[in-house]
Hints:
The complex is a heterodimer. Chain A is mainly alpha-helical. Chain A has 13 helices and no strands. Chain A has a single domain, classed as Orthogonal Bundle (ABC transporter involved in vitamin B12 uptake, BtuC).
Amino acid sequence: xxxxxxxxxxxxxxxxxxxxxxxxxxxxxxxxxxxxxxxxxxxxxxxxxxxxxxxxxxxxxxxxxxxxxxxxxxxxxxxxxxxxxxxxxxxxxxxxxxxxxxxxxxxxxxxxxxxxxxxxxxxxxxxxxxxxxxxxxxxxxxxxxxxxxxxxxxxxxxxxxxxxxxxxxxxxxxxxxxxxxxxxxxxxxxxxxxxxxxxxxxxxxxxxxxxxxxxxxxxxxxxxxxxxxxxxxxxxxxxxxxxxxxxxxxxxxxxxxxxxxxxxxxxxxxxxxxxxxxxxxxxxxxxxxxxxxxxxxxxxxxxxxxxxxxxxxxxxxxxxxxxxxxxxxxxxxxxxxx
Amino acid sequence: xxxxxxxxxxxxxxxxxxxxxxxxxxxxxxxxxxxxxxxxxxxxxxxxxxxxxxxxxxxxxxxxxxxxxxxxxxxxxxxxxxxxxxxxxxxxxxxxxxxxxxxxxxxxxxxxxxxxxxxxxxxxxxxxxxxxxxxxxxxxxxxxxxxxxxxxxxxxxxxxxxxxxxxxxxxxxxxxxxxxxxxxxxxxxxxxxxxxxxxxxxxxxxxxxxxxxxxxxxxxxxxxxxxxxxxxxxxxxxxxxxxxxxxxxxxxxxxxxxxxxxxxxxxxxxxxxxxxxxxxxxxxxxxxxxxxxxxxxxxxxxxxxxxxxxxxxxxxxxxxxxxxxxxxxxx
Lengths: 338, 331
């Protein structure tokens, strides 16, 4: 028994350490993102500007151009990562991220339809994406409802919908003019360039509502993972808790996708990476991994590519997140750690 | 005759039926007499005969082969990863094939579907080797979870590169988008003939692997206790997947759905025995893909819908209906 307590203490202190390291890394990337660029700002100037004491040029560059973009990266990373980790934990399958079950795909189809067929842009496209994600999620939900929601049925119905959504995307992209198709592809990759404060505000309010909901529901999630019967025995209303958790996860994915496009891989990878840093399902490290991944990817996409080229952030998240996961897999010590 | 054997006979008859439908129906109205004449006694100057022989026969053959290969590969993949959600593309096959096709278009100026075949096949093989090596880790032991994660991660890296090329090269995007939806049109039989030995070898290997998958399904420790060489079984399964899924992708493009859904649905009728799952998947995959191609010819006349698009729109509702009807299973 005392060994168990000791093991738990080790795990808790490890979780704390990982959290602190991740937070530190996020702060470093954030400072770099705000300071570095075609016009660089020194650290004292940066701090002064953030405190409202900077000159007008710094204020414009840091507060108008760079801070909204960074904030959006943080919000999107947080939302995607939490959505992915919640889905994976709820449905008990590492493949069950919102990309796989068609929710971000639904957002993509709606957005690509808005771009290619209706010729819309900007906020209107985001609106379409948000509605698309919610429509797909509620369709999955309604179709998989049969005296309750079983995680297994939800995932399979979601996969079916995802296939249809993918086919619709293929149809739209092959029938459009190739130039328009390329424009739609940029949206589908996910991009943070030209983020405005108004967009950040919408995302921030949504995430600000959803994150407390996750915090309230997290203990229920932990009990659900013990199995439905155990959870019921512990006094959890299983169906209601599961529905609420799914709804929150869907909303997070929808908000993030509508704000920045379906940035690849963040939702899928944040949970598994966090699990390798801290064993077990840990939402806080997952969220921090997501934030770190998106903000780092955005920094790389703006400043670190050869020849000074800039690419949409969604290209980089896959290109840096995936090798890291691969490295973790390739160097794992024993086969027990899966 | 047992229920499962009877089912196989029914499926074999169904295959013949869809082959007939595929030869007989299309955008061009051709009488049944002319269709039979085109097969048995072709007249080179007759346009109807030419349509049947040069267009409908190749796409039917390709549909049968690719569908069967994807179905079987999917069944093996789900056994290999012990994940009923696994798609044969998950080993990196589709992403590797797509990347090589994109590079082939961009740097070698290849424009025809037949020209993509070897690029796609090579890409599928390279990607799978990488996925397997990473999934196996330093200890050399691949587990279902690490294979799944490694496959998804490699796919993500390759997709990033593909997207980067597509965003910077309009002409490549233009070619690639038509290949990537998956289609049976514009391929000729000579390429199929070259790939046929590979596919046959793949099916033969699948027959060998099926028994091993049954043992693996009991868990690695039990499998070892029963004298099964677990690592060898996994490698053989992976090789079969590359050959089958890589072969199908290289002739028909990265068609999704068939590989994931067919074995999943088939399992309801056959039970968990992989010998039956793979045999049923062979037939059902072929039927599904050919049928999708026929529907694609008929619903938006005078143009056509690609088989890869139709198969999802046709198959997904069926899949959802089956999922809804079934009792809650284990994931």
